[in-house]
Structures are given as C-alpha cells and as structure tokens.
Amino acid sequence: AVYYSNGSEIFHIDSVYFQSNFIACEVGMTKHIAQRLFLVLLFTAFAHAWAASTPNDNPRELVFVTWADYIDPEIVEEFEAMHNAKLRFVHYEVDEARDELLVSTEGSGYDLAIVNGDIITSYRKRGWLARLDNLDIPNLQHINPRWTSAYPDAGEYATPYFWGTLGIAYRQDLVEEPMTSWKNLFEPDEKLRGKIVMIKDSRDTVGAALKSLGYSLNSTDPNHLKAAKELILSQQSYVSTYTYPTLGEDSSLVTGEIVAAMMYNGDVLMLQEHAPNIQFVAPEEGVGLWVDYLTVFEASENKDLAAAFIDYLNKPSVAARNAEFVYYATPNVGAERLLPQEYFDNTVINPDKLVLERSEFYKRLPPRVMKKYTDIIMRITK
C-alpha cells in the first residue's frame, strides 16, 4: 500500500501502476492529486537510482600487513583519494612475527600482506592466498619474469614488490678499520662490546652466522647448525639488543649509540639521509638475497580493491616513484625505464655482479630443521 498526503488529507492507494503516460489508481482521486503523486514517486525512484550509482561517503578499508616505512605515503594518499578507500597498516618487525599473527587468525581479518618468497607455498597450502590470475591486475605485465619464477607459486599467488640483500650497516667514523666480513660482526673488536644490533629472526641471524663459518645460509647439516649456535652465543655479550634499528633521525645508528647492525640494504640509504657516515657492506662470505611479494588473502571481502591497489603500485610511473622512496631494487621493468641513472649506479640498491655471485636465495626448510633455527634464536632472546 502507498500513502500520500496533500497537506491536509491522507489518501490510501492500494495499488499504483506506472505506464508510459498515466497512472491508474484503484481508488478515486482528482487528476491533480494523481499527477502530484506521480511526480513524487518518480522523483523518489530517480533519487534511489542516483544513490545506488554514487559511491558511499564512507571509504572502504584495506588492511595491509607489511613492514614499516615500506611505501611512499603520497602514493597511499593518491590511491585512497582515487578509490574512496582507507589503508590501515599492520606492521611487523620480522617475518616470524607476521607468521604468528596470521596463524592466530588463520589468515582472516586482513586484505593484503608483504611476504617473503620462501613462505608463499606454505601460505598457499593453508588456503590463505587468492589466485592473482582471478583478479583484475593488468599492470602485472610490467613485472620481470625472473622474480615471478624465483619461488614456487609466486607467479600464481604473489607479485614481486622489491628485492635486495641483507648485510652490515656500520658507522665508519666510529671504527678503526672498514667492515668487510660477517666475522666483523660475529667476532668483533672489543671496542664494539654492547654496540651491535642483531635481527631477532632465525633465518637472517642464523643464516648470517652460517655464512660467517663458510656454510650455506640454507644449511640443514646438524654440525653446521651447532657451530652457528656456538658462534651466536659467543657474540651475545657484544649485542645491545636483538631487534631492527629504527629508520629515523633518532635511530641508534644515527646517534652513535650503536656502531654496527644487521640491516637490509635500502634501509641503510634511508639512515644516510641523517648520518652520511653510515655505510653498508655486503660481506665477502656472501649474503642472503631476498624478494618480497604482495599477496591478497582468500578471506578478504575486498579482493577487487586489493587488486586495484596492487595494479596501481605496478603502474610504471608509480612503481618508479616508490622505488626511489624506499631505496630498493624494483622488479618492474616499466619502472626501470623511468628511473635515473644514479639509481642503477648505486651498488647498495643494485648489487654488482660479484655480490650477486656470492648471494643465495632463502629456501624453505623442512619443519624439523626450521625448529632448530628457531631454537637457536629463542635461546638468546628469551
């Protein structure tokens, strides 16, 4: 039933039929009132149609699990304005912390995540990841296939974001000799006691200890792991904290409170903006070569918006700006064409051939071996 008021009376209309040029009503009323009712209902219909085609004033939220300081804030603001969206960041300090976070919710409650290459298959087997080829992401055509094929399942369930190395950041003005080796960190000079920061991550820290001893950072040999554990324990009194240095002007490396730290290559360039005496070295024994990937969660209710975000990040002009902001090597071939020559000449961002020859990709290790890696770190950080 429809009720209509002309200001002084209320009319009850049992049924109203819209036709091309008139309204037929089952109760009598004046032609004037019927015309007014038609205009009211017609206006209401148009109003509902307009509202349905107009974006809601409330932005859609994307929950993004990622490292801190790992995207240009201006790019985020641009995307939010273009899509009436709001990104909410959930930051983690080490890969294992991210894994624990996602295990606690079985991969639900989040839309996107930055993940390391060797974990993609594990996440896929858990049913957490959406297939990217089912999403609309045309700008993936700009990605170098070298990085999509670097890890199993990377091509179907993840897209490369940045790649780089893990080495040593140190204050060259506070040491007597340049650091060139992992031994400088694990068997340091007495003057570095309490002046070193190590990452609380089993793959990174145990891997670096293995490289210092001349072994593979992916070693599964019990004797190698035992030697790495002893080396890490002997270093313990020289370590101020097991964490990751902050990247602002108050960083302990900038203030000089810390002299040396394990760090990812691009982050060192961020710190150099505040303290030019901070140097980065890819140790002569070899380094870990990592690739970070963008993934979309199967449980996300905003897969279309997540796909639009990944597509925007891979627009060559946007990817180039983002690469210059974070100081990491981009896997986006289209972006490479837009970057200045000094970006490619910087061997911290783009390691030279010799460094790459000594580098190893992190591989997924058997669970029983991973437990041994984890136990070593738990022993020193508990």
Describe the fold and architecture:
The chain is of the alpha/beta class and 382 residues long. It has 17 helices and 14 strands. Strands 5, 6, 7, 8, 9, 10, 11, 12, 13 and 14 form a ten-stranded mixed β-sheet that branches. The protein has a two-stranded antiparallel ribbon with strand order 1-2. Strand 3 and strand 4 form a beta hairpin. Helix 8 crosses helix 9, helix 8 crosses helix 17 and helix 9 packs parallel to helix 17.
Low-confidence stretches: 1-34, 37-42, 46-55
Describe the main β-sheet briefly: 10 strands, mixed
Q: Calculate Rg over CA atoms.
A: 29 Å
Given the helix and strand composition, which structural class is it? alpha/beta
Distance between the termini: 71 Å
Number of strands: 14
What's the average pLDDT? Answer: 87
Oligomeric organization of the protein chains = single chain
Counted by DSSP, the helix tally is 17
Beta-strand content:
15-25%
Helicity, as a percent range: 25-40%
The outline comes out as: globular
Considering the chains and any ligands shown, give keywords for the structure.
ten-stranded mixed sheet; 14 strands; 40% helix
